Amino acid sequence: MKIEIWSDVMCPFCYIGKKNFEQALENLPFKDEVKVEWKSFQLDPTLEHSETKTTAEYFREKKGFPEEQAKQMTNQVIQMGKASGIDFNFEKALITNTFTAHKLLHLAKKYNKSSEMEEELFKAHFLDGKNVGDIDTLVSLAVSLGLDAEEAKKILQSEEFDYEINQDILEARNNGISGVPFFILNGKYGVSGAQPAEVLKNALTQTYEETVVPFKDNSENNLSCDSDGCSI
């Protein structure tokens, strides 16, 4: 069974969704039959590649949110993250263009390490305050997973995987995906947002058993991010 997941590195709900998905999958008897494919998505492709902003700066300059409102929003996400085992540190997180980071994800996919690389990028961005648009930082993450430093640096400085990234984004648009995380289960059913592990477990089980009733999104709990921001 194939699961496609659209995600962006700077999306906190994508990290929560990843953790919840892994928890759901771990408890399923058919987990070894599930193939996961991570797909690229950019929440803000307009950011300059050399540009970094703090979370507060980004909310103020790009979204027009005052600092107090931004802090209130991130505090809510911090509490949600703790429930999924994530200690978000938005004071350290640096907002930047994630296109180059997606190149690294596609390189990791080549070596069947895309899920591990997703985790490393999320940790680097949300926990360690690293610039995930910086090539040296990305090369160090590649090396930490056993990838070759020279190959990683060469690819990150080239146009390799640009087509694949843009195809992922186009595919998302063609599927009506405007926010992430978004899961497509076996090419049939869609699950939007950072759903609880139990919801994902039920959706995965239903898809695996090929029931005739399509899974419906739990729209009342659609925790996701789009180009306008993250829903709370």
UniProtKB/TrEMBL annotation:
Gene3D superfamilies: Glutaredoxin. Residues 3-204 form the DSBA-like thioredoxin domain. Pfam families: DSBA (PF01323). SUPFAM superfamilies: Thioredoxin-like. GO terms for molecular function: oxidoreductase activity. It comes from the Bacteria. This is DsbA family oxidoreductase. It comes from Chryseobacterium indoltheticum. The lineage of its organism: Bacteria, Pseudomonadati, Bacteroidota, Flavobacteriia, Flavobacteriales.
